[in-house]
Backbone:
């Protein structure tokens, strides 16, 4: 069987090619891909050839936010059958390293993650028509669940893990006041999970009106364009801060400072956005006894994310601002790079989209 693939050869060099796909072996499933979301890491690979120390050193198929339909199964597979719609968990831990033994699977020393150039050979991703995958990575969906929505399970899982980190710091979010800095896909989904948890007030900040409009649809009670109206956020600095918790999703030094200024004493900042070296406002963190907590990927939250989407309990579709057929992958990447109009851009990987 042949499959078209979206393969990156290096900075600004993406090509649509055709690969031969083998039949599934023991424990494997052949997945007919439906939808694939373009992530910030995909954009870094395309524009910069990598991010930080991670560089593209050989051709790589991008994409880790994907969902599709089982086309065939190999021996010893019973959890899914041909025709089953599934979301594909891109994270594959080893199960035996010291962190896996502690249940910290996201910190696995031998982690394999779809579409990642961290290891050599690179882990190939899901931007293709057909993909051979471990059946254990497939999370079944209802027949009526949109594959476009299901492909958002991975970023939703990231937001759910960030919420779990917040709860570990300040307790349940019901009735609490929440700030979310950055209204990209993860920021908007952090808004959604805070709303789903019953937060009393959710303020979303960004520099783009289009992304803030999406945050409103995801449950923000107020949005502030801090580029145009920085004074509106400054009102939350009074009396040592008004928010119980801030989800910092932009990795901007000014956003981290604003979060530290607006979080109350003994509140928490959950750092979700990543960048290079960023100045940390230590005086505020120490003086107000703020918990600054990182949030990295997800563990069991992937299954939780799929369940929330599959049961219709959380509508992720407002973050999907555009979709393109696979052959227009370059146009899709360019659209996803324009934050003035895009939140989540997806690829239509096959007719199953």
Residues:
């Amino acid at each position: 069987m042949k499959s078209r693939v979206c393969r990156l050869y290096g900075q600004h060099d993406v090509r649509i090619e055709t690969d031969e796909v083998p039949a599934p072996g023991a424990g494997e499933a052949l997945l007919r891909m439906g939808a694939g979301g373009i992530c910030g890491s995909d954009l870094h690979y395309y524009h910069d050839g990598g991010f930080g120390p991670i560089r593209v050193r050989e051709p790589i198929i991008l994409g880790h936010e994907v969902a599709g339909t089982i086309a065939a199964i190999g021996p010893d597979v019973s959890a899914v059958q041909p025709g089953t719609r599934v979301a594909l968990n891109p994270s594959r831990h080893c199960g035996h390293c010291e962190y896996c033994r502690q249940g910290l699977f996201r910190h696995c020393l031998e982690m394999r993650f779809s579409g990642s150039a961290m290891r050599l050979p690179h882990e190939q991703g899901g931007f293709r028509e057909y993909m051979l995958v471990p059946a254990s990575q497939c999370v079944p969906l209802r027949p009526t669940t949109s594959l476009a929505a299901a492909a958002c399970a991975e970023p939703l899982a990231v937001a759910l893990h960030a919420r779990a980190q917040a709860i570990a710091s300040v307790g349940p979010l019901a009735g609490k006041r929440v700030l979310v800095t950055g209204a990209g896909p993860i920021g908007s989904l952090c808004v959604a999970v805070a709303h789903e948890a019953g937060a009393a007030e959710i303020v979303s900040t960004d520099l783009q009106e289009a992304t803030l409009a999406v945050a409103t649809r995801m449950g923000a009670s107020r949005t502030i364009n801090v580029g145009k109206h920085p004074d509106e956020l400054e009102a939350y600095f009074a009396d040592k801060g008004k928010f119980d918790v801030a989800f910092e999703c932009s990795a901007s030094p000014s956003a981290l400072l604003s979060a530290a200024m607006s979080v109350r004493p003994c509140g928490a900042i959950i750092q979700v956005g990543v960048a290079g070296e960023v100045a940390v406002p230590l005086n505020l963190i120490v003086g107000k006894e703020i918990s600054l907590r990182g949030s990295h990927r997800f563990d069991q939250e992937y299954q939780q994310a799929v369940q929330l989407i599959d049961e219709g309990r959380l509508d992720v579709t407002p973050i999907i601002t555009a979709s393109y057929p696979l052959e227009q992958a370059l146009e899709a990447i360019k659209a996803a790079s324009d934050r003035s109009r895009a939140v989540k851009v997806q690829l239509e990987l096959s007719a199953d989209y």
